[in-house]
């Protein structure tokens, strides 16, 4: 740039230039969209050009031609005929004022709009510039908001017009969101944010990103909503949930990578399966668990972890299958009987659960925990008296069994017959 090169470019961000406005000619949103399609010539030093380009992209302008001196500016203006020129008054080789006068003198360039950027000026200097025909100036340093207002002012739009255009877009976007047209709603909310970055618009933009699977973008937009309104009723909660989801996704990616290694262990595949269940990817979880068992087919702890994972995810039928396979291999494991019985109870298979507890008690007749769980299964099947008997047996083994005492009191409430 400093060497005199000319650079022509559009925004490189993944979202720029993707979206269409509401298709209603004459609407404010349509007018704003048309204005943002304007090619802008930036004539200044490299630092100022980079600052202005970043500011312009904040509110949706993406088509730029960039030059570093006045002579290049004149050549470029005649070649590309930009819609707007933003030029430094003190450009080398040909000043901003000379460029303005050249544009005014050429009928083919008469429609080009012009903003002159200057250093701080006093009233006399401003008056002199006005006499020279400079009517639109921005004094450095200026903010993105000041640049936006000045730019849209050239096209006859006020800040209020931009607010109304954003509201128009957001209203249509909300209808699309409620109808589950999330891709289209996202496009309009993105445009609304460009015109008027309200916290609520950022929040709904983030919701659209979530629904379309763009989690990182959702987090960024939720954060924007929180930054603009620390008391936003929902944005902070959604932000924390989205961050947690991202952490789970990153963990899942790491687990997938580890599970593909030749030296992966059964525990690696169990961990991957659990992560898939958390992500509601049941088929992938099943495959990971199968690989875990294949790695260590005789390891009952692996099967127990898998069964427990299914139980925790509410997949009680799958848990029952796993525990049954494990019991067939290790028929004297009280823990496996207990876990399988829990899976049966959660499926309302109380008779099967009771039978399993009875089998377990034949192996371990002094296990107070088995009697306690048997009592719960009996009570759930409507056999209150038998449940009380089972609790009494648990308390004979361990008189200080607090949970059994509490459950017995609950079962006896309203029951005049005390079972000995």
The second-level CATH architecture of the largest domain is 3-Layer(aba) Sandwich
Might you state the CATH topology name of the largest domain? Rossmann fold
Largest sheet: 6 strands, mixed
Which CATH top level class of the largest domain fits? Alpha Beta
Order of helices and strands: EHEHEHEHEHEHHHHHHHHHHHHHHH
Average per-residue pLDDT, rounded, comes to: 88
Shape: elongated
User: What is the percent of helical residues?
Assistant: 55-70%
Integer-rounded radius of gyration? 36 Å
Strand order of the largest sheet: 1-3-2-4-5-6
CATH homologous superfamily heading of the largest domain = Response regulator
Measured between the Cα atoms of the first and last residue, the distance is 96 Å
Can you characterise this structure?
This protein is of the alpha/beta class and 420 residues long. It has four domains: 151 residues, Response regulator (Rossmann fold, 3-Layer(aba) Sandwich); 86 residues, Serine Threonine Protein Phosphatase 5, Tetratricopeptide repeat (Alpha Horseshoe), CATH 1.25.40; 105 residues, Serine Threonine Protein Phosphatase 5, Tetratricopeptide repeat (Alpha Horseshoe); 53 residues, no CATH class. The chain contains 20 helices and six strands. It has a six-stranded mixed sheet with strand order 1-3-2-4-5-6, sandwiched between helices. Helix 8 packs antiparallel against helix 9, helix 12 runs parallel beside helix 14 and helix 14 runs antiparallel to helix 15.
């Amino acid at each position: 740039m400093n060497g005199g090169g000319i650079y022509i470019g559009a925004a490189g961000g993944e979202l720029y230039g993707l979206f269409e406005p509401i298709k209603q000619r004459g609407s404010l949103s349509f007018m704003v969209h048309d204005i943002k399609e304007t090619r802008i010539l930036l004539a200044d030093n490299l630092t100022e050009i980079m600052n202005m380009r970043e500011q312009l992209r904040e509110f949706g302008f993406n088509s730029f031609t960039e030059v570093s001196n006045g002579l290049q500016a004149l050549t470029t203006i005649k070649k590309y005929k930009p819609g707007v020129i933003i030029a430094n008054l003190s450009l080398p080789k040909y000043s901003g004022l000379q460029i303005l006068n050249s544009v005014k003198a050429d009928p083919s360039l008469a429609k080009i709009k012009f903003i002159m950027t200057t250093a701080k000026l006093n009233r006399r200097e401003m008056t002199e510039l006005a006499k020279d025909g400079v009517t639109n100036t921005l004094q450095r340093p200026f903010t993105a908001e000041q640049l936006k207002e000045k730019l849209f002012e050239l096209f006859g739009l006020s800040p209020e017009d931009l607010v109304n255009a954003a509201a128009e877009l957001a209203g249509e976007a909300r209808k699309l969101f409620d109808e589950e047209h999330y891709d289209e709603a996202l496009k309009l909310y993105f445009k609304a944010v460009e015109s008027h970055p309200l916290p609520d618009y950022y929040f709904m933009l983030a919701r659209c990103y979530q629904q379309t699977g763009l989690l990182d973008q959702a987090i960024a937009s939720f954060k924007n909503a929180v930054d603009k309104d620390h008391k936003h009723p929902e944005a902070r909660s959604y932000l924390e949930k989205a961050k947690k989801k991202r952490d789970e996704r990153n963990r899942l990616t790491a687990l997938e990578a580890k599970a593909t290694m030749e030296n992966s262990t059964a525990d690696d595949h169990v961990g991957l399966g659990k992560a898939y269940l958390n992500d509601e990817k049941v088929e992938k979880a099943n495959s990971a668990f199968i690989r875990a068992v294949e790695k260590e087919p005789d390891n009952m702890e692996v099967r127990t972890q898998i069964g427990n994972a299914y139980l925790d995810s509410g997949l009680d039928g799958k848990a029952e299958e796993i525990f049954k396979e494990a019991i067939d291999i290790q028929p004297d494991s009280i823990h496996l009987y207990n876990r399988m019985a829990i899976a049966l109870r959660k499926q309302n298979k109380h008779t099967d659960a009771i039978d399993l507890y009875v089998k377990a008690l034949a192996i371990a007749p002094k296990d107070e925990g088995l009697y306690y769980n048997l009592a719960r299964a009996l009570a759930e099947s409507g056999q209150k008296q038998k449940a009380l008997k089972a609790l009494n047996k648990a308390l004979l083994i361990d008189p200080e069994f607090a949970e059994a005492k509490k459950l017995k009191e609950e079962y006896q409430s309203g029951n005049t017959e005390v079972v000995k």
